[in-house]
Design goal:
The chain is α/β, with parallel strands linked by helices. The protein contains twelve helices and twelve strands. The chain has a seven-stranded mixed sheet with strand order 2-8-7-6-5-3-4, with helices on both faces. A three-stranded antiparallel sheet has the order 9-10-12. It has a two-stranded parallel sheet with strand order 1-11. Helix 4 links the parallel strand 3 and strand 4. Helix 2 runs parallel beside helix 7 and helix 9 packs across helix 12.
């Protein structure tokens, strides 16, 4: 049996999305900037995609910008906001648990002279809001707080934080990397005082290499990609029509199925969590259910390094992650688990299981069947 439990890294594309993108690739392949009928047909796909996503977010379709994914959306949010506001503001507030596409951009801006304040989290991974609010000032151009942590699944109260930030300093731009939250939760950025919100299609059964950025009307932000002036001069370059159309369809399908699929995902997660808690040496790093996304479970198998457990499970047809997919091939410790003050041994042995609507109870039971004897076998080879 094969069990793919790495859905926070990427998901399988919906068959309906494959069918639609293939049609665009082979039949409706015009450039939307062209003035003939092929171009007009392509432009209709883009317009329809904006309407679909705007309907989900309850915003105006002109507030949706298509990108190559959340990494670009996050880069544009932070750097574009800085460029638009650098004459009179020079401070960025973010957190210690952000995805590398935010944290590394913050470090880049720091090298350019920006004052970056990184807010700590508690042992569950929840942002210290008192520290965040104390750090606010007239010099802050942006606050960036992720919606759902990609490693532990902790859900940050971004709507509440954004509202309080705006109450104190209405001109501060509030950004949220909402990659792991989109399709799992309904969040309406305008209603929650969020100016910029990033998402990526391949996290909700859409194509890779495409995403979007919600940009609230009148938000000051400079483009980073210049050229032909596509998307109202905010992102030049030929539009990825198949990707955009596929993303919009995947978003619609995800939200249509959300209540049922999230309940099934949570059931699978609970079966695995309950089974693992019966094993000696297993520690759950994800927070309690009320503040944790249904699809992410972070677990430490004490005494066995993450990479060893990952590859041992792979040999059994089970696919998991040892951290963020964008940084799991690196040697650095997880900034998220480190910020939660976990022990070195616990960080070294952390595995992330992440689920989707494609997972089954049979797969969960298969994992539990093989993992305890596998774990006990691996512990025998640990040097004391």
């Amino acid at each position: 049996m094969e069990a793919y439990f790495d859905n926070s890294a990427t998901t399988a594309v919906y068959p309906q999305v494959v069918e639609l993108t293939n049609k665009i690739f082979t039949k409706d392949y015009g450039n939307p900037s062209s003035l003939h009928m092929k171009g007009i047909e392509a432009e209709r796909y883009l317009s329809d995609a904006k309407e679909r996503i705007a309907k989900i977010l309850k915003c105006d379709k002109k507030e949706i910008l298509f990108t190559s994914g959340a990494t670009e959306s996050n880069n544009l949010s932070l750097i574009g906001s800085y460029l638009a506001n650098k004459r009179n503001k020079n401070t960025l507030i973010t957190t210690q648990i952000e995805h590398p596409s935010v944290s590394q951009v913050a470090s880049f801006l720091e090298e350019m002279g920006v004052n970056v304040i990184r807010i700590p989290v508690d042992e569950k991974g929840i942002v210290d809001t008192d520290s965040l609010y104390d750090a606010l000032s007239e010099d802050v151009f942006m606050v960036s707080v992720m919606g759902v942590n990609n490693e532990t699944g902790v859900v940050e109260p971004v709507g509440d934080i954004a509202s309080e930030v705006k109450r104190r300093y209405p001109d501060i731009i509030f950004h949220s990397d909402y990659v792991q939250g989109f399709s799992k939760y309904k969040l309406y950025p305008s209603r929650n005082n969020i100016d910029l919100l990033s998402a990526s299609a391949h996290k909700f059964h859409g194509p890779k290499g495409v995403g979007f950025l919600f940009i609230k009307d009148k938000t000051r932000i400079k483009p980073l990609i210049l050229g032909g002036g596509q998307q109202n001069n905010m992102r030049s370059g030929t539009d990825n029509v198949p990707g955009v159309a596929g993303m919009a369809l995947a978003a619609s399908l995800s939200f249509e199925n959300a209540s049922v699929s999230n309940a099934n995902i949570k059931k699978i997660k609970d079966i695995i969590k309950d089974g693992l808690l019966k094993m000696d040496g297993v520690c759950i790093n994800s927070p309690d259910d009320e503040i944790c996304a249904p699809h992410i479970l972070n677990v430490s198998f004490m005494g066995v390094r993450s990479e060893v457990m990952l590859h041992a499970l792979e040999e059994k047809g089970i696919y998991v992650s040892s951290g963020s997919a964008c940084s799991s091939n690196k040697k650095e410790k997880s900034s998220t688990l480190k910020s939660m003050n976990l022990s070195m041994q616990r960080m070294d042995s952390a595995i992330r299981f992440s689920f989707s609507e494609n997972n089954t109870i049979e797969q969960a039971l298969y994992l539990l069947e093989i993992i305890e004897p596998l774990y006990n076998q691996l512990k025998k080879f640990v040097r004391s």
